[in-house]
Specification:
By secondary structure, the protein is of the alpha+beta class. Helices cover 45% and strands 23% of the residues. It has helices spanning 8-16, 22-38, 55-67, and strands spanning 43-49, 71-76, 80-86. The chain has a three-stranded antiparallel beta sheet, covered by helices on one side. A hairpin with a 3-residue loop joins strand 2 (71-76) and strand 3 (80-86). Helix 2 (22-38) packs across helix 3.
């Protein structure tokens, strides 16, 4: 299995310049839904860090999923949002 190494310094720079938001969260979620539905699953559970997505972006993610017919259950924890998405 190949992996890309990263230093702590590079990780800090990435964090400082992050543009992660609604679009990126949806891409990750849709990729997961596609892979899991092809494997026969009827739901996924995913976590979004509160450091990487704000309340408005989260609302956009949930709205987009619901518009596409998915059922979304949100659990708000101290440091993460946990979404269970069913189809």
């Amino acid at each position: 299995m190949e992996y890309k190494e990263i230093t702590a310094e590079q990780a800090r720079k990435n964090s400082e310049h992050s543009t992660y938001g609604t679009k990126e969260a949806l891409k990750s979620i849709f990729d997961s839904i596609n892979a899991n539905s092809n494997a026969g699953a009827k739901s996924i559970t995913t976590m979004l860090s509160k450091q990487s997505i704000n309340d408005n972006e989260l609302t956009g993610v949930i709205s987009e999923l619901e518009l596409k017919g998915f059922e979304v259950d949100l659990k708000d924890k101290a440091t993460v949002y946990t979404l269970t998405i069913k189809w």
